[in-house]
Amino acid sequence: MSAKIISGTEVAKEIRAELKAEVAELAAKHKVVPGLVTILVGEDPASQSYVAAKNKTAKELGIHSEQVTLPADTSEAELLALVEKCNNDPKIHGILVQLPLPKQINEAKVLNAISPDKDVDGFHPVNVGRMVLGEKCFLPCTPHGVLELLQRSGVKTDGAEVVVVGRSNIVGKPVANLMLQKRAGGNATVTLCHTRTKDMDFHTKRADILIVAAGVANMIKADQVKEGVVVIDVGVNRVGMTESGKAKLAGDVEFDSVKEKAAAITPVPGGVGPMTITMLMKNTVQSAKQFAGLA
Ligand code: NAP
């Protein structure tokens, strides 16, 4: 069997079209224009390209976007002052501080300073707490993207054995949490694996849905999964250069061999990646609606 390819590029395109229509309607009917600010400290090339992609997508959807770039030696106090200014700016509904931050700045302190009402990355402890409790909140973008990919591809999670590899605060823990919530798209039996897991193959082999976010290129091989598994590969690993000089990417799953056993699988690139930015836009639109009393 060769797997169905779950294209994040296609699903993201579908959601972006919906968002674009929603943004146009908000402007026409309610004079509301969602606004996103991205804050980048320093000149890390990967961060620069992530921020550029976020602003480009925002513009394409009709979202007002502002990009603030600060020098690498910016102090924590200066960054906190900027966050506070954005918290009070009525044109801005979403604040994104690109991580990682330079070492003189305490990341947690900055993320906690963002108003939970504008925390479109979903990293603020208030939003994390609401997510765990199953309350309305901004869901973190990558886990939310995984959820949407599964739902829009018709993958049933109800009663499924979901195995997540990786327990980071931005992917592994929240995605595991979303899968066990008592609602559509959740209701799974969830196992979370990490570097101290004793027998990882035991767990991965019984997964109906395997979600891998470890950051280790091609770590999951075909002999570690069962026939008919649905695989969501969150990993993005640079494994060399293409002939045109671009970074060559690989996921955490050995795509070519695992796709022969899986029922469905996401590719890298073109899987979870495009969904992450799309969910950031969805959260920004949601925030604008909430501020306008429309949601
Ligand atoms: P992270 O913070 O480094 O966490 C990696 C997790 O994987 C840790 O919990 C670690 O366990 C676990 N792990 C690592 N090696 C393992 C192994 N050999 N066996 C079992 N568990 C192992 O990484 P992250 O931020 O969650 O990101 C994970 C991957 O997703 C990266 O490739 C990243 O680039 C990618 N990513 C993609 C997107 C996207 O939009 N597509 C977004 C975010 C991240 P311990 O806790 O025990 O150390």
From TrEMBL:
GO CC, alphabetical: cytosol
Pathway involvement of the protein, from the record: One-carbon metabolism; tetrahydrofolate interconversion
Recorded GO MF terms: methenyltetrahydrofolate cyclohydrolase activity; methylenetetrahydrofolate dehydrogenase (NADP+) activity
Record keyword Amino-acid biosynthesis present: yes
Sequence ranges assigned to domain Tetrahydrofolate dehydrogenase/cyclohydrolase catalytic in this UniProt record: 6-121
Pfam families registered for this protein in UniProt: THF_DHG_CYH (PF00763), THF_DHG_CYH_C (PF02882)
Catalytic activity: (6R)-5,10-methenyltetrahydrofolate + H2O = (6R)-10-formyltetrahydrofolate + H(+); (6R)-5,10-methylene-5,6,7,8-tetrahydrofolate + NADP(+) = (6R)-5,10-methenyltetrahydrofolate + NADPH
Single GO BP term: purine nucleotide biosynthetic process
Binding site for NADP(+): G166, R167, S168, V236
Enzyme Commission number(s) from the entry: 1.5.1.5, 3.5.4.9
Subunit organization: Homodimer.
Recorded family membership: Belongs to the tetrahydrofolate dehydrogenase/cyclohydrolase family.
HAMAP family on file: THF_DHG_CYH
Stated name of the protein: Bifunctional protein FolD
Organism (species): Candidatus Electronema aureum
Gene name tied to this protein: folD
